[in-house]
Amino acid sequence: MLFRIDASNGLPIYDQISRQMKFAIAHGALRSGELVPSVRELAQRVAVNPNTVARAYRDLQIDGVLEPLRGEGLRVTAHAVDVCQRERLSLLKERLRGAISECRLSGLDTPQIRELVDAVLQDTAVNGTS
Amino acid sequence: MLFRIDASNGLPIYDQISRQMKFAIAHGALRSGELVPSVRELAQRVAVNPNTVARAYRDLQIDGVLEPLRGEGLRVTAHAVDVCQRERLSLLKERLRGAISECRLSGLDTPQIRELVDAVLQDTAVNGTS
Amino acid sequence: MLFRIDASNGLPIYDQISRQMKFAIAHGALRSGELVPSVRELAQRVAVNPNTVARAYRDLQIDGVLEPLRGEGLRVTAHAVDVCQRERLSLLKERLRGAISECRLSGLDTPQIRELVDAVLQDTAVNGTS
Amino acid sequence: MLFRIDASNGLPIYDQISRQMKFAIAHGALRSGELVPSVRELAQRVAVNPNTVARAYRDLQIDGVLEPLRGEGLRVTAHAVDVCQRERLSLLKERLRGAISECRLSGLDTPQIRELVDAVLQDTAVNGTS
DNA sequence: GTGGTCTAGACCACC
DNA sequence: GTGGTCTAGACCACG
After folding, report:
1. pTM
2. Under CATH, which number does the domain A7-123 receive?
3. Which end of chain A is more exposed for a tag (fewer CB within 10 A), N or C?
């Protein structure tokens, strides 16, 4: 599983981690029942503070995506896939909506916004993360 | 000039103010040489603390968009239009880029993203601001 | 009499006016008994708000440099020359002291400061005002 | 690192703080990569409101001298030394230029100004800060 | 713990 | 009247 933390993302790191983990589950890269990396290991891998990973994992437990397995770590829950697939689009839409509503507020009309989106899509086409 | 402050925007209020003022200038709603509303007046209009407006105005001075007219107030600079028009798209693109790059990261391909954008565009078509 | 108002001087306009008037008197360009320009006229000449000139004149009256001549305007007092010549150096020294003390604070030693002063003296040698 | 705030400096406190920090960096007293004192600590040390220190630090971020280390504090950037050394002389020269141009305006010639500077240099030689 | 945001209110400088 | 500075203190986000 690959995590890409982007400091200029606008989202806090713990959100980036939890969201990407949800995306991975929705996408099938991480299956129900599997153990996720330990806090320490993931923290080292993405080079962030363990507290940050812990917070992401805590949020994922609250969302019912992860559950503790006594003494072994955290496991993807049985219904995590449903949750994550359902949430995936809404998370993304919500964020898009914020950006697009500001476009409208700045006076752009729908075709202009679509044009701008296409420009960004091209910019991010090849190496599409940052 | 209309200001819409959205507490759940993600952006701090002073940023919303300065960005919207840039958009208004880029759009021609506010012209070079005009005085902007006084700190106190705008603060009252958008129902925020004068300090918050003052910070937005200060940021706009740093960006060269406003200039002080001693004892009279703040004036839109001569080259503000250039600055704002140049910045408008980049500010919006930067925000779109964050959202779109996360879409890619979540496994969506370009057509899927475009589809999602269209859905959001429809959602925000009529009462599109917040 | 020539006035040069420099917005980037650091000093408020009314101070620039009153100080330059003192310098003019110290220098003999303006003599005891002479009437100074009216508030309106000087305001127009240097393109500032009449209130600003009025404030400068008020300060000069407080300092005993100008005195009102009923119905005619303001006149340079008899002892103005003494006052202005005495003040001239101290006003200039006080200002230099502020700049030089910051140089020391920044870690420059005396020869380095002298070198810096020489550089500024060269820069301002030809057209020496701004 | 030593900070000397002088209320009668003419410069606002936050400027005095940011300028002295730049001088400290230019001088090597503060190195790239080091964490600067926390807002709260410095505020207490120089006995000003934390907001005032925060503003100085924010200005230093805008100038690219400091960068945030999320949750840890503010760090001197890698290129801060370049920036600060380049700025140091220009900041000081700018202030000297204002004082010296006024000397010229008052009718002093170059040797007279140099003489006046020497007088000030002597006055400020021993306990030279305020 | 860190910095950032925001509010409330006082005071000053300038015009 | 204008903007600018500073203080005091609350709250939040982040690690």
Report:
1. 0.87
2. 1.10.10.10
3. C
